[in-house]
Amino acid sequence: MNLLRKTRISTIFLLTLFIFSACKTKGKTEATSPVALTPAEAREITRIAYTYAFPVVDNLRVQYAFFVDKTNPEYKAPYNRIFNIPRVFTPDDKVIQTPNSDTPYSWVGLDLRAEPLVFIIPPIEKERYWSLQLIDLYTHNFDYLGSRATGNGGGNFMIAGPGWNGVTPPGITKVIRCETEIASAQFRTQLFNASDLENVKKIQNQYVVKPLSAFLGQAAPAPAPAINFMTPLSKEAQRSSLDIFKHLNFALQFCPTHPSEKELMANFKKLGIGSGEVFDTTKFSPEIVKAMHEGIADSWQDFAKVMQETNEGKISPADAFGTREYLNGNYTYRMAAAVAGIYGNSKEEAIYPNYYLDSAGNKLNGSNRYIMHFAPGQLPPANSFWSLTMYDSSDLLVANPINRYLLNSTMLSQFKRDKDGGLTLYIQQGAPDKAKTANWLPAPKGVFRVVLRLYWPRKEALDGTWKQPKVQKVAG
Length: 476
Fold this sequence. Notes:
Layout: H1 2-32, H2 39-68, E1 83-84, E2 105-111, E3 117-121, E4 130-136, E5 141-146, E6 155-160, E7 174-177, E8 182-189, H3 197-204, E9 208-211, H4 212-216, H5 235-238, H6 244-252, H7 262-268, H8 286-311, H9 324-327, H10 331-341, E10 350-351, E11 354-355, E12 370-374, E13 382-392, E14 406-408, E15 423-428, E16 440-442, E17 448-457, H11 459-462, E18 471-473
Parallel strand pairs: 6-7, 15-16
Antiparallel strand pairs: 1-2, 2-8, 3-6, 3-9, 4-5, 4-8, 10-17, 11-17, 12-15, 12-18, 13-14, 13-17
Helix pairs in contact: 2-6, 2-8, 2-10, 8-10
């Protein structure tokens, strides 16, 4: 009886242990398995998640090239160190789509995890436009310094990340908060002409960036842990690969969830998308994976609709750039901005009328000749300056025999005016008549687009009073 009793107890104990272990294993499986979704649900979540992800991941792709990968020919400097580019962009610059070639840039990658950074700005002559655009990891333009925003008098401006809760230190002109721990900043300093470059260099060399502790002459806090960056997807892979969500998950560790996006993130989590989540397509059935690829295609259809409405003049390219508050959850606009011209300015700072089509609604093509005509008194209304820049089908500057990538208002004295005082610009592949060469913007073979930029636009440019000219095809 004793032996039988012991055997029964042992059996009960082993059975209990088995059940307990099974329950633990089951609990783990349920906690790490994706939520059961229909293909239609997975497709819709993916559409929204991809639209959300693209600008974030593309932003990190650029930042990796600029601030992380020292082997990249586009590398600038490590985070928190300013890098001046004492020249304008040329066709050799291929990382950023639709770069401007009017203003030499200075770049800073911002790592705000350990402490804030202080930007020390010198006084700059009133006639010269300058700006410092501050861009968070989502690609929101979270604030500005510059001629329009803060004037040309100089000052000490502190940029603080989401974890900083101090009081404004002495000597600080203004405190600006960033909602992400990783961000970037770009100076634009106006270049009047080629002989002005040395003056721009002198200004650039006076831009200073310091950690707050160094600015105050205090001991530095403990450094933030080194970041093991993922090698970015290529620009081409970003457009179709589901791996984009692995890169989004990596990026979101630096982005505390905004209150407005808690429900959105809860929905993304159903597919393993979010900060701290693991995105793994092997967890999904082939039907769900297929639906997710269809969701990416749907996102690109949404993008195409925005671009079509832009071409038709129903919306302005300027509508897609700005703060989180301004965009107000319009992730399709945010994606469109990143695809068409990442790091574009908010409309108060600059607007970008884009031309993909001529006045008849046909795509611009180098096999044709075009003009852009400004009637007397109808030049682009900008407090600072305007420019018209040529881009090829890859949204890069166009190499040409005269190394002219744009026409702008600083060249007005060189342009040949019409008899009535108006101005006609010639957009074509081959050179026009010698009398028109000063007004010539060289075009590439094949499809192209031109972008009209107005820096610090006036009221009539923002409220629609001023009507932008069309690009007209020339017969013959």
